[in-house]
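Anyone else keep sequences and structure tokens together like this?

Example one:
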Amino acid sequence: MPTCIEGLLFDMNGLFRHWHDTGARTSERLANLPEGTITRYAYNHPTYRLARVGILTDQQWADDVSDRLTADFGPHIRDALTPWRTDRGQPEPQMIKLLAELRRQVPVGVLSNSTDALRADLQHHGITFDHVFPSAELGVDKPSPHAFNSAADRMGISPQALVYFDDEPTFVHAARSIGMQAHLFTTPTECAARLEELGLAPTLPVHDRRTHPNGRHTPELRS
């Protein structure tokens, strides 16, 4: 393994977890809401950014979403939101297997634009990283260079010695701007092959399943 690689850093959503928004769609049907209403009230609202940078907790943000929906559509909305809140996405088994192999070789971190619910979600899905960086804990989100620099600093590894993977091109560019060896994620197989080229020796996943365009939520909302 090249001595210049001292650790790995990954995005979360679209790599290790896929959002199909089945919970939100179920809640909308239960509440007789037009499809996409929860996305508009939850993720397209300024309070989501506040939760992503730690000004609001995940619960405070969700309560605000519930309050605004209830004010606009009626009190029956609150009970109907349970499927949305209990939906934590679907794990990607190939990447979880790859992660376990990689952790035996170098420290591996996750940097995600997420609320403070990320750690509980990782535990829920049985996904273990050596370092976990929700943007809510960092106080800054991607693509700010400060998010990447903060993650590298907390890992104790210079950005130049970190390899980063993300399925959002803007975030890949941002990571490269501070010197990280950043690569665009497309599939588990491609990711494993790229890591092998860099000197790591992961086992290539058997199946090659692309995550775009239906395997994740809108990039700017959950990354």
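And example two:
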Amino acid sequence: MTGGPRLAGVVAGKLTHAAVVILAAYSASFFLLFVLPGDAVLARIGTTDTLGSADVSGLDLDLLRDEVGLSGSLWTQYWTGVTGLLRGDLGHSLVTEQPVTQLIGEVLPNTLILAAVSLAVSVPLGFLLAVLAVAPRSRLVRSLASLVPSAYVSLPVFWVGILFVYVFAITLGAFPSSGSQGAASLVLPTAVLALLGSAQFAQVLISSLRVELGSTYAAVTAPAKGAGRFRILFRHCLRNASFPFLAVFGLRIGQLLGGTVVVEMVFSRVGLGRLMVDSVKAVDLTVVLGLVVVLAVAYVVINALVDIGYLLLDPRLRRRSTEVAV
């Protein structure tokens, strides 16, 4: 088989895998949401009408369900959702009747900015902590650098966020405690997420670097050739130790996109996490499903980028992929 068709087959396999993952995430979320207690129509009345939880006996609930597309059978609704998904249509909110893509598009930039800034801080900080934990000859410095990541990871995120609000916003008045406007509003939530990310990265890197430094090529071969400790660390060990880091890095991006609920609630920021919480509370099923699809796509893309990162770091994988393509 020539390289072109074989490469096309690999790409087709990756795309098929991505489609299966997205469809599986949508299907599982759909059936789980629709078997949970709660009525989207009643929730919509309580959210958009002054009736609240008053007597609704005079309302035609079947007509209201038909208006929002909830009158058909479960399988009919599922098929309608899947066909819409294939067209790129995530439907309309059951509460506000706005397109789901519009609602997600309005809050996505805030989450992306927060995730990008926190990653830009956490990656170099995580590498710095890892190097300080293994490189210095001072045992005290190495012990402190190893202790800090484990200590911070053990702290609840909401507690750290509240502490930051109390110290830096209320006591010192240095930064705003809430809001999504301006660079100043990014400082405190970014610090919380960046410190957590750097601690997670440092834990993995410290463990990997210790294994690499104890290997034969770093402990015997390189010193025999006259390489110093820092040259061995940065020239040889750090690259090999980055493989586990890539996996954690990919997971961290997914956590930042879909798991910033606590931080966004503590700092009253608008984002994907807060939209998910509000949609679940309002039984806005189409918005929840739309968010699930967006996050599933994000995870698929992140996994693909991690695979590319492995190819860039390991020449053996590049040669193997070249042989497969040929």
